Amino acid sequence: xxxxxxxxxxxxxxxxxxxxxxxxxxxxxxxxxxxxxxxxxxxxxxxxxxxxxxxxxxxxxxxxxxxxxxxxxxxxxxxxxxxxxxxxxxxxxxxxxxxxxxxxxxxxxxxxxxxxxxxxxxxxxxxxxxxxxxxxxxxxxxxxxxxxxxxxxxxxxxxxxxxxxxxxxxxxxxxxxxxxxxxxxxxxxxxxxxxxxxxxxxxxxxxxxxxxxxxxxxxxxxxxxxxxx
Length: 229
What we know:
229 residues; mainly beta; Immunoglobulin-like; 2 domains; four-stranded antiparallel sheet; elongated; Muniscin C-terminal domain-containing protein; Muniscin_C
C-alpha cells in the first residue's frame, strides 16, 4: 500500500488570487503488526496503520501576500490510497472526507499543520504471515498449584524484509486475571513487574536483536502463585 497526493492550489479571499502555487506536503505512514497466538499456534495477524499529513510553510513572498490580506485559507489535499480493497476497515479523521472515488480522500489543513488523516486495518492471509512478523515465537506454560512457569522462545524472522537489526524489542507477559502472585518471582533476562492492574504483567526492558537464522533464544519466568476461588 502507498499514498500519493496532488499539489494543492492556494488562494486567498482577495480578488487577486495566487493560483498554481505548490505547497510542500509530507505524508507519513505508521504501521504496527498485531499477532495473536492461540494454544501455541499463530491464529491471526493484522496490520494497523495510521496516515498523517502535514503542509509545509509557503514561500516567503506568498506568506507576506496572504498575511497582508486575510487569514490563511486551508490547503486542499487529495490523498489516494492504493490497494484499498485489501483493507478490512478505514476510519477517517475529523478533517478528512471521502470523495466519489473509493480510494480518493480530501483533506483541508492549514500551513505548517499536521493532522491524522485516517487509520486502516489490513487482515494478513495465513500464507503471508512470515512476510509481516518481525519475530517468531513459541510459548509454553506450566501451571501448578503453588507456582507457574512460562517459557518464551523467540528469534528474528529471516524471511521478513527489513534492516539488519531489530531495535527496542521488548516483551510483556500478561498473567491471567485470577492469578495472585505471592512472591518468589524470577525471570531470565531480568524483568520488572508493571504497576498494579487487574491483569498483572512482567515486562522485559527493550534491547537490540540481530537478524538472521539464529537459534531460538529463551525468556523464562517463574513465580509463586495462588489461584483465586
